[in-house]
């Protein structure tokens, strides 16, 4: 078997924000290799650099030093090649546009013809289980459904890489469990590569093939865990000894990060 291609590769990646008072080292010497088909979670407390890392991949921030490639290209080339879909923390849907029109917007901007737009909207809605809701406005949907619609919008380009920044952070646990299960099914069906930010240990362990544990001292990676769990995961895998062992290791990594604080 040939090794899967590298989708995101970071080598000694650093990003320092020049704030007014003092520089913030949001990413310090991050080394990471994300392979095609991986589901990678980034976990760590607020302010540790998770969003910054996704934004560097998406070419929304520029690295200060080190190297990063996305599908073997610079982030700028990858952005121009529409290499990724981005799901933001808040649903970020336009309230005056129906769900189908929200999903259509980036396709309109890129001048996709109308029939191609319709086809892609229908496919994306089907993937997130929202077929039949295309003419609803965002405010007519529950929080969970709004977040599904945001995912559908990110899927509409059919990019191989999905960047998701705490997409389920604002949802209650029951809805989150359900969407976690649905996301795993979607990932299995589409064979996408996913970079997913969370601060929930069970969510990270349940979803991921690789877990990147980050430290509250901004930008440090304290542990990278390759999950031994099978790719197909019923929710009750969360009670298995293997699951609890990984969760324990994540917790240790988060604690180790804390002890560096001064
Ligand atoms: P996370 O997503 O893990 O909560 P972020 O990546 O948003 O963390 O932020 C990492 C660090 O960089 C934090 O200390 C944050 O305050 C700082 N930061 C983020 N964006 C900027 C910016 N535009 N200018 C200055 N500092 C920033
Ligand atoms: Mg963030």
Task: Please give a structural write-up.
The protein is of the alpha/beta class and 262 residues long. It has helices spanning 50-57, 75-80, 99-109, 114-127, 143-155, 173-190, 201-207, 241-259; strands spanning 6-18, 23-35, 39-43, 65-70, 84-87, 161-165, 193-198, 210-214, 221-226. It has 2 domains: 6-83 and 161-261, Rossmann fold; 93-158, no CATH class. It contains 8 helices and 9 strands. The model has no long low-confidence stretch (mean pLDDT 92). Residues 50-51, 165 line the site of magnesium ion.
Lay out the secondary structure.
Blueprint: E1 6-18, E2 23-35, E3 39-43, H1 50-57, E4 65-70, H2 75-80, E5 84-87, H3 99-109, H4 114-127, H5 143-155, E6 161-165, H6 173-190, E7 193-198, H7 201-207, E8 210-214, E9 221-226, H8 241-259
Parallel strand pairs: 3-7, 3-8, 5-6, 6-7
Antiparallel strand pairs: 1-2, 1-4, 8-9
Bound molecules: adenosine-5'-diphosphate and magnesium ion.
Magnesium ion is lined by residues 50-51, 165.
Quick take:
This protein is of the alpha/beta class. It contains 8 helices and 9 strands.
N- to C-terminal separation?
47 Å
How much β-strand is present in the residues? 15-25%
Looking at the structure, the CATH topology of the largest domain is Rossmann fold
Poorly predicted runs: none
**Which sheet architecture does the biggest sheet show?**
6 strands, mixed
Q: Order of strands in the sheet with the most strands?
A: 5-6-7-3-8-9
Order of helices and strands: EEEHEHEHHHEHEHEEH
Shape: globular
The CATH class of the largest domain is: Alpha Beta
């Amino acid at each position: 078997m040939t090794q899967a291609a590298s989708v995101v590769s970071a080598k000694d990646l650093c990003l320092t924000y020049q704030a007014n008072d003092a520089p913030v080292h949001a990413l310090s010497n991050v080394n990471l290799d994300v392979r095609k088909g991986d589901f990678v979670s980034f976990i760590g407390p607020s302010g540790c650099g998770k969003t910054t890392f996704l934004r560097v991949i998406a070419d929304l921030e520029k690295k200060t030093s080190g190297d990063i490639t996305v599908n073997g290209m610079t982030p700028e080339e990858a952005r121009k090649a529409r290499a990724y879909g981005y799901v933001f923390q808040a649903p970020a849907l336009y309230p005056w546009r129906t769900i189908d029109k929200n999903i259509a917007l980036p396709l309109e901007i890129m001048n996709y013809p109308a029939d191609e737009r319709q086809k892609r909207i229908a496919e994306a809605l089907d993937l997130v289980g929202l077929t039949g809701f295309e003419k609803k406005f965002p405010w007519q949907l529950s929080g969970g459904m709004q977040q599904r619609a945001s995912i559908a919008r990110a899927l509409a380009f059919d990019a191989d890489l999905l960047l998701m920044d705490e997409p389920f952070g604002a949802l209650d646990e029951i809805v989150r469990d359900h969407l976690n299960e649905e996301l795993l099914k979607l990932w299995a069906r589409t064979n996408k590569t996913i970079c997913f930010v969370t601060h929930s240990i069970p969510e990270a362990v349940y979803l991921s093939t690789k877990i990147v544990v980050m430290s509250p001292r901004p930008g440090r990676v304290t542990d990278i865990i390759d999950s031994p769990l099978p790719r197909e995961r019923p929710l009750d895998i969360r009670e298995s000894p293997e699951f609890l062992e990984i969760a324990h290791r994540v917790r240790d990594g988060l604690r180790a990060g804390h002890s560096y604080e001064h």
